[in-house]
Amino acid sequence: MTPMGIFGILFLFVALYWGTDPFKYSAISEFPDFEAYKVDMPPWELVPTVRDNDNLLQKSEIKFLNQVQGPESIAFDPLGRGPYTGVADGRVVFWDGENWNDFAHTSSNRSELCNPKPSPASYLPNEHICGRPLGLRFDKKTGDLYIADAYFGLLKVGPEGGLATSLVTEAGRVPLRFTNDLDIDDEGNIYFTDSSSKYQRRNFMQLIFSCENGGRLIKYNPHTKETNVLMTNLQFPNGVSLSKDGSFLVVCEGCSGRLLKYWLKGKKAGTSEVFAILPGFPDNIRTNKDGEFWVAIHSRRSIGKPHGQAVKYSPDGKLLRVLEDSEGKVVKAVSESDERDGKLWLGSVLMPYIAVYDLD
Ligand SMILES: *[C@@H]1O[C@H](CO)[C@@H](O)[C@H](O)[C@H]1NC(C)=O
To answer: So which residues are the signal peptide here (predicted)?
Structure first.
């Protein structure tokens, strides 16, 4: 991969984007103050080049085809039921073992605009009305489901489901623009990301081109209802996950394609450092029972067919495993990779299915 490679991808994206303008938005017309920010790209020699030559993700099972549209995040409740997932029309749905059921929603203003559509992307123009649940996590003690909704901020819904309650819509007097993912510690504190201070999810193309640096990592204390901004100046922060011992958080930074570590405990508490350089641009991250981190790679750094990739890192940031479907034959995209009982549950914000890969 050469610098020309990057230019190639950018050129391709720009050409595709300007050529089709799929959502009838144009970066300049809607955002007259559009500005591109410099991204501190890691040197090429630090970018991992390991590939999964066996294309192991092709062995995944495709489940629930056309029953779930754009299931980004996957969660199981404290009784082990599920999966639950957030879909493109703004609902959180629940698999009871036989059927998908409505569980919760984030918008109090749902209408026929949120009715079924042919593809996950066709919901984009109405997402700000219907809601778009991205990150999902259950509080294991209370059974409450916490939801990071791209448009409605941080919300919570009880085990009975229904309309979720809004908890946070701004932090440090700056409104949340693009809430993305969350995790919960043992005391019930919520850590969540706001991907941009300027662009909403339906304008993600502008965010990708601008790499605006208003992204934040935020803490919400449900007991005091206080909100604290932990990290600022992030360029498209996305997934977030606590370490197994709760001493640090790992945050995915989309524009630079790296993982950042934010210390919560110990001498370095309150400081951050680079945890790892990723082979591509990340979406969500989830910690497994051994304290390792699975990162969903949304796209690679070089040109190629869209394809699914998930990579695993040790608790100290070493790349342990790469799984992919480099031809995009079975798993075309991965937004989240959750390890559970020897299986990886692979969500995707773009696809109409959940893929399950058997690790054993
Ligand atoms: C509610 O939805 C309608 C479209 O169905 C929209 O025109 C209106 O602005 C929305 N109201 C609020 C408060 O979001």
So the answer is: 1-19
- In this structure, the residues whose C-beta lies within 6 A of any atom of ligand 1 are 109, 111, 113, 129
Spacing, Cα 94 to ligand 1 middle (Å)? 26
- 107 CA: nearest ligand 1 atom: 14
Class of domain 3-54+81-306: mainly beta
In this structure, the residue with its CA closest to atom 12 of ligand 1 is 109
Could you tell me whether strands 165-168 and 100-105 are parallel, antiparallel, or unpaired per DSSP bridges? Answer: unpaired
Domain boundaries, the chain: 3-54+81-306
Q: Quickly count: other Cβ atoms within 10 Å of residue 238's Cβ.
A: 27
The model's pLDDT over 71-130, given as tens digits with 9 standing for 90+, comes to 999 999 999 999 999 999 999 999 999 999 999 999 999 999 999 998 888 999 999 999
Cβ–Cβ contacts within 10 Å for residue 97, how many? 6
